[in-house]
């Protein structure tokens, strides 16, 4: 019984993700948008240096709806 409760508890905790509150001020929104833009620029830079025939490129650089 204790083992089952332990497994259920561990499974429940594994499903938890950190709560990320939405920004509440214009400064926070701008900071969020700047972070998103920086991540996208980094992704684009990394994709520009990858071999386009690799599985990694297919996985990390293709966007939904993008033609090949």
Number of helices: 3
- The secondary structure category is mainly alpha
Estimate what percentage of residues fall within beta strands: under 5%
Distance between the termini: 53 Å
Low-confidence stretches: none
Oligomer: single chain
Helix-strand pattern, N to C? HHH
Give the tally of β-strands. 0
Shape: flat
Structure description:
The protein has 68 residues and is mainly α. Helix content is 65%, strand content 0%. The protein has three helices and no strands. The model has no long low-confidence stretch (mean pLDDT 82).
Task: Tag the structure with descriptive keywords.
3 helices, 68 residues, mainly alpha, single chain
How would the blueprint of this fold be written?
Blueprint: H1 2-14, H2 26-49, H3 55-61
Give a concise summary.
It is built from 3 helices and no strands.
């Amino acid at each position: 019984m204790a083992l089952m409760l332990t497994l259920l508890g561990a499974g429940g905790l594994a499903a938890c993700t950190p709560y990320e509150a939405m920004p509440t001020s214009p400064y926070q929104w701008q900071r969020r948008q700047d972070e998103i833009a920086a991540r996208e620029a980094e992704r684009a830079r990394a994709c520009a240096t990858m071999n386009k025939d690799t599985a990694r490129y297919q996985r990390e650089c293709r966007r939904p709806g993008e033609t090949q």
